[in-house]
Write a structure and sequence with these properties.
2 domains; six-stranded parallel β-sheet; Dihydrodipicolinate Reductase, domain 2; 11 strands; alpha/beta; five-stranded mixed β-sheet
């Protein structure tokens, strides 16, 4: 039996990549593609909803899927822990699954995991992320997730040192970690996590060069996983064995 997938935002850059990967997955078929002109009721009857829309409507997509008892894979950026908390009761009450993937790149997930593992050993942590000038949200979902992982890893040590955090130029704090967002043409995606301590620093850098190639392996993992997931799942790290679960 073929799994019918409703792809919301399927004509966008990420949506197009997801569509192409699902077309190659055995046992899965994109049966309907929804854009801004479509009503979300059109997901009715799908076995899985994949959301690659925009931060503004993504929460409506999740609610529409959960209300219909359909699992949803969220590829849209802009989902912080606070925002996910808004839909958690709905997902748990419905007994469905909602899988949130801030970044499908395996290298990005590994970089964030390594930074979180190292964070307890350094008093300072800052993130610099760069994306193309057409990206409409900042900080990126990847940077937010990385900051949340760092904060969780430092639960015993407490917040990182972020002097002069009241100044706007110091970036937006997530879990006490300052995030600095660059939006400029000619960039796909890049993130640097800079950890600093007395007399030394450690930097984790990840570059996305060709999105279709970088994201495809993660999409292949996430789509089948999301079909059978229960409850809220955040991050591709739950699908690969790197020693971090959330």
């Amino acid at each position: 039996m073929t799994t019918q997938v409703a792809l919301v935002g399927g004509t966008g850059k990420l949506g197009t990549i997801i569509h192409a990967v699902i077309d190659e997955l055995e046992g899965f078929e994109v049966s309907r593609v929804l854009g801004s002109a479509n009503d979300l009721s059109e997901i009715e009857g799908a076995d899985l909803v994949v959301d690659a829309s925009t931060p503004q409507i993504s929460i409506d997509v999740v609610r529409a899927a959960v209300e219909r008892g359909i699992n949803v894979l969220v590829a849209t950026s802009g989902w912080s822990a606070e925002r996910i908390a808004l839909v958690r009761p709905l997902v748990e009450a419905a007994g469905t699954g909602a899988v949130f993937i801030p970044n499908f790149s395996l290298g990005s997930v590994l970089g964030s995991a390594l930074a979180a593992a190292a964070a307890p050993f350094f008093g300072s942590a800052e993130i610099v992320e760069a994306h193309t000038d057409t990206k409409i949200d900042s900080p990126s979902g990847t940077a937010v997730r990385t900051a949340e992982l760092i904060a969780a890893a430092r639960a015993e040590q407490g917040p990182v040192s972020a002097p002069h955090a009241d100044q706007r130029a110091r970036g937006q704090q997530v879990g006490s970690v300052p995030i600095h967002s660059l939006r400029r043409p000619g960039v796909v995606a890049k993130q640097e996590v800079i950890l600093s301590g007395p007399g030394e620093s450690l930097t984790f850098t990840h570059d996305t060069v060709v999105p279709a190639l970088a994201y495809a392996p993660g999409i292949r993992l996430a789509v089948p996983y999301a079909l059978n997931a229960t409850g809220i799942v955040i991050g591709l790290e739950n699908m690969i064995d790197i020693g971090i679960r959330a």
